[in-house]
Fold this protein.
Amino acid sequence: MTTVLSEDLTARCARFVYAEAELLDERRLDEWTNLFAEDALYWLPMNPEQADPGDGLNLVLDDLPRLRDRVSRLTSGLAFSEEPHSRTSHLIGNVRLLPGEQAGRLAGRPVAGGEHVVAARCVVGRSRRGTTETFHARTVWILRPTGDDFVIVVKRVDLLNAADPLPVLTFLL
Amino acid sequence: MTAPTVDQLVRDDGVHRDIYRDADVFEREMARIFKRTWVFMAHESEVPEPGDYVTRSVGREPVVLVRGEDSVLRAVVNRCRHRAALVCEHEAGNAKSFRCQYHGWTYRNDGRLIGVPHPERQSEDVRERLGLVRLPRVESYRGLVFASFNPDVPDLAEHLGPAARGYVDRFLDHCMGLPLVAHRQAHRIAMRGNWKLQVENGLDGYHAGFTHRSFFDVMRRRTGASVRYASGLPTATARAFRNGHAAIDPETKSRKPLIQRVSTLPGAEEKLEAVRAQVGDDKYDEFVGGVTGAGINVGIFPNLQLIGIHIRRIEPVSVDRTVVSVRPLLAPDAPEELNWLRLRYHELFYGPAGFGQPDDFEMFDRVENGLDDTEDGWLRFERGNGAEDRLDEGETALGNVTDETPQRGQYRQWRALMAEDERA
């Protein structure tokens, strides 16, 4: 019985993160931002072992107001590295719910009761001005149930090459 | 067709596209600039203990900067003297010795060859002859470590000169004079473009209000204060010093707008209260204003810039590829929360996903594309040319912050170094 429930939960979480990625790839960025909770974190560390978002140098560490700044800058027409903007394609696989201990280490904050920690492997294609690049990442979400759906409490993206010299990453992962 | 002379490529008020595009010019730069002058390596705090090392490059030469068991800092070429494999594969670490994993030759961390497997088939003096190649000069100024392949390069302090040293001091003292140490992590950007595009841009007081408009717009919306970069303020200056070193100095005295910006950082409210409790009301403004850095940009030709709170190292890779490293500095004696805020402010503007720096790289990309043009072929650094004042007994050329005074100084040094062989 438990297994059945858990399968169902994994499937629901997977559907949610697929839909989230679709909003990014369709560039419906206001709708995307609205998926995040008031206390949310959008986080791209440079070290896959980093447990505390503040303890290290990050590529991105946005609270919700900063995430809204990021999106408004990207859509202002003056964020020149995204002018013209990137086209992206997120492919998400290996979606699974993380058990307590591992979840706590990767989530970047304590996981409250009722929240689910979801991990996946992502391949993100990014095309801009005639060049297509591929990025690989492990992505972790803390999802908080709200009614029939979820809101994102944390979205953590660990790029495979986060510690290497990187190209400009002003598009959203 | 003979290669163009340096004077055909660089004039007093502009440079020809070939210096960004011509692979032969790049080769000459590696030999005549990076092999001849002082090249910035690291901050001493990156290698504090015996055995600590970082792998770096001098031009394209792979180099290990390593502190020996005798605590002396040395720079050795990261290449086995036998068959040329790297002897150190890591970016940083601690080692008593470096072993080439191809045939097992082992070097002590001062570069001496101490182990050769099956030495009976090797000449007896192999250990004396074939230590790692050592760069003849390593010196530091206030923790900034430079190395040179040129044994005859003037002392580092002399090479920097008093005016540039004054600006380096101002930068390094910006956190209430507390000692600064390099963060263990750095943002690194692999840029498309010639290394000199970053050299010019780091001292460019003209671009900020245009390239970085979107950052200032975000800050205005969040703080309610309309603060733009001091472009055009009559008191804001651009300076060129000896040997291609330079600074831009907006000379803004007001800390209030900077404190407002810091207060928009994620979690800032709580951190700022903790800072206030520890440093007191009188020093609060000065401490928090310093979270954003010294407010000046300092350039030490060819590959070091001191901007914001970071050390920027420019690594040429090829004629159109460059790696730029920006490594934040923290003040261990300041409140922990202040250092937390320093990192957050740095992340806001800098790095591959920051709100500012990526737009510079975009401009380099657009320049690279524009360089396809051969009809004009010239890039112009003529703002304020001929209208500069001289200070410090002629040592400093002084212009307005939007003048291309720093770039003219950088290219005077470029031309001087590149022309040496032609004169000989």
